[in-house]
Amino acid sequence: MTPIALQRSHINSSTVSCVTVEVEEHTQCKCACEVMSYHCNSNQRYVKRDCECKCINDKEKEECMKKSNMIWDPENCKCMCNKMEETCSSDLKWIREECA
Hints:
Elements: E1 2-9, E2 16-23, E3 44-47, E4 52-55, H1 58-65, E5 70-73, E6 78-81
Protein name: Vascular endothelial growth factor D-like isoform X1
Pfam family, one: CXCXC
Keywords: Secreted, Signal
């Protein structure tokens, strides 16, 4: 227990008094980010102030946002097709990054 000094004001009077109360001190908890730099991929940089990984390829994001059939994936820092995967005929493969 840790002693803490408080100023107490009484509701029905102008009397103010100082009191000390004991509060439980938690030592296990810390102020820390859940996301750490090792969570970032090669297209991201760690921003400690915001506790997050941010994409570093801003120009790719800008170009992606101009395309009506594409969306930006902030987790992988990639431009992706905004429609569902399609079934391709034989010898062809769906490429989500190209929407084709």
